[in-house]
Design goal:
alpha/beta, Rossmann fold, 4-stranded parallel β-sheet, 9 helices, binds magnesium ion
Length: about 250
């Protein structure tokens, strides 16, 4: 591990020996709708070998790419690998045309329809728990009931929080899982989000890069660092700068 103080300093470093640069998103390039110092320069400098590997489970690559464009941080959808979307795509391959119970935001529900899955709560073949801001006690009750069907639970990512732009932690999918575990302490589930190596493997396959040619950059040793280790990829740990100024002088949405 090679600690680096910030994205700003990393943006000035040559990383030329790496054919593929894989980078986490929240806490590395952005926080909410604010862009960290150096992130735009870093993305521009490494544009042709940069791949975003994120535990984001609220967006698809398409919706996230559109949001990043509005933040003047243009990254193409095909260069974005997200935990929620990739979980859904794997479920669609494993259970073509099946019923799926989803606790997720609209972009993932729309993608499920596009992939031919039948979204509903009746006799699901599988259950997906992703980041959903309107998840409440009624949602939790429905999830507990759905699990009684015996359908396997897939949790997009296990992060309890991600860094917020004001320096406060933002609740994540793992916080919803913690609520479920308060009701069902021994609930079984699967997750391909970091620290599992699956998302890194997908990015490497898209990049056509070997593990030895790649570098992973992340702010969380417990997810990013362990995923890089599991995938056999070099890792740089950067420290999120904490609270960001109200405006960094560029357009935000
Ligand atoms: Mg992060």
């Amino acid at each position: 591990m090679h600690p680096v103080s910030s994205m700003a300093s990393l943006s000035r470093q040559p990383l030329d020996r790496h054919a593929a640069i894989l980078c986490d998103l929240d806490g590395c390039l952005i926080s909410g709708d604010r862009v960290y110092d150096g992130a735009r320069a870093f993305a521009a400098r490494n544009e042709d070998r940069l791949w975003i590997v994120s535990n984001n489970s609220a967006d698809t690559a398409e919706t996230l790419s559109a949001r990043l464009h509005r933040l003047a941080l243009p990254i193409a959808p095909e260069r974005i690998v997200l935990a929620g979307e990739q979980t859904l795509r794997r479920l669609a391959l494993a259970h073509p045309g099946a019923a799926i119970a989803m606790h997720a935001e609209a972009p993932l529900v729309a993608l499920a329809h596009d992939l031919g899955l039948v979204v509903g709560e009746s006799a699901p073949a599988c259950i997906l728990l992703a980041r959903q801001t309107r998840f409440d006690l009624n949602s939790l009750g429905r999830l507990v009931a759905q699990l009684e069907s015996g359908a396997p639970l897939h949790v997009a990512n296990l992060d309890r929080t991600h860094p917020g732009p004001d320096g406060y932690p933002v609740p994540e999918t793992g916080a919803l899982l913690a609520a479920l575990r308060a009701c069902r302490p021994d609930v079984a589930f699967r997750s391909i989000g970091k620290p599992a190596p699956d998302l890194i493997d997908i990015a490497l396959e898209r990049a056509g890069a070997t593990r030895g040619d790649a570098l992973f950059i992340g702010d969380n040793p417990e997810t990013d660092g362990l995923a890089a280790r599991a995938a056999g990829v070099a890792f740089i740990h950067i420290e999120a700068p904490g609270a960001l100024p109200a405006s960094d002088g560029r357009a935000t949405c």
